[in-house]
Amino acid sequence: MPAIEWLRFRAVEIGWGAFALANLAAMVRWESWETVPFHFIWVSLTLVYGFRVWRLPPMLATLGAVGVATGVLILVDVRHGAQEWGELFEVPLMSAMFLAMVWHARRRQQALRAVERLADERASLLERQQRFIHDASHELRTPVTIARGHLDVLQRTTRNSQEIEVALDELARIEHILGRLLLLAKADHPDFVTWSEIDVEPFLEDVFLRWTAAAQRPWRLGALAEGTLRADPEALRNALDALLENAVKHTGVHDAIELSAVAGGRDIAISVSDQGCGIPQDAVERIFERFARADSARTRAEGGVGLGLAIVDAIAKAHDGRCSVETSEQGSTFVLRLPGFEPAPVLPQPLELLASPSPS
Fold first, then answer.
1. Which of 62, 249, 268, 301 is deepest in the core (most CB within 10 A)?
2. Cα separations in angstroms, 41 against 5, 26, 48, 92, 114
3. Is the pTM of this model over 0.90?
4. Binning pLDDT at 50, 70 and 90, where does residue 54 land?
C-alpha cells in the first residue's frame, strides 16, 4: 500500500523520467537530429520543476544527471562528425536558463508560504478576538444584571433617586453595547442567519411604528415594496434599528427621517434617509468598520461607540447583500440592498359592468 501511494504521488516525476529516457534513446538513434530530443528533455524538465518545485538536493542531482547524459551524447556525435563543436555550448546554456527558472520558482514558493503564514496568523487573531468579545460580553452581562437588580430594589425604597436613575441608564447602555458585541462576535458563524419568509410591507410598518414612539422626529413612511423577502427577521430588525438609531443620533427634533423600500427584480433596497448634518467625506469609507465613528468630537450620547453600522454591514453580508451611503450637508441616505425578494403577484382588476337605465 505505501508503494502504491508513493507511485501516485510521484507519477509526474516517473512520467517525465520515462519521457527523458525515450528522448535520450532518440538522441542515440538519430544523431543528426539529436538537437530536437535534446530540447524536449530540457524544456520538459523546466516545466515539471515549475509545477513541482523539488527540494534542492534532488533538483541538483537531476540537473547534473541530465547535463552529463546530454553532454556526453553530443560529444560522442561531435567525435563522429554528426554535430558541430558549438552544439556543446547548448548544455551550459540550458543549465543556466533552468537555474534562473529555479531561482524564480523558489522565490515564488517562499512568497506563497509567507502569504499563507500571514493569512493563518490573521485568521487566528480574528478568531481570538471574536472569542474574547464573546466571552467578555457573557462574563460582563452577569454582574451588570445583578447590579441592575439591586438598583431597582434600591430605587423602590429611596425617594430621591436621581443618582440611581443615572446609574440604571448607564447599565442599560452597557447592556445595549454588550448585546451588540455578542451579535458581532456571532456574525461570522455559518449559523448566524436563520432563514424565513418575511412579508416586507407589514414588517417595515412595524419597525417604523416602534421608532415613531421612541424618538420625537418628523417621521415619514415612504413607498414600500409589496412582496416577501427570504431573510432572518431578527437580524434584519437589528440592522434597521441600527440604521434608524444612527439617523436619530445625527438629527435634531425638526429633522425628518424617512423609511422606504423599492424592489428591483429579485432584490430589494431598504432606505433610511435623514435631514441631519451629513457625514464627513473622509469618514464615509470607514463608517462600516467596527468601533469607527464619523466624528470623534461628538459627545458620548451622540456618537456611540461605533458598533451600529458595523452590525448593519455584517448582517448585510450574511444575507449576500450590502449597505451603502450617500451623504451631503443636507443629510444622509443609507441603502440596505438584499437579494431573495419575491414581488407580490399582481391581481387582475375586476371588470365593472355599468348598467345603463332602461328607457321608460
1. 268
2. 27, 11, 11, 14, 33
3. no
4. confident
Does the pLDDT of residue 351 top 60, yes or no? no
**pLDDT tens sequence across 303-322:** 444 688 988 999 999 999 99
State the Cα–Cα distance between residues 137 and 182, nearest whole angstrom: 6
Of these ranges, 116-125, 203-212, 343-352, the one predicted with the greatest mean pLDDT is: 203-212
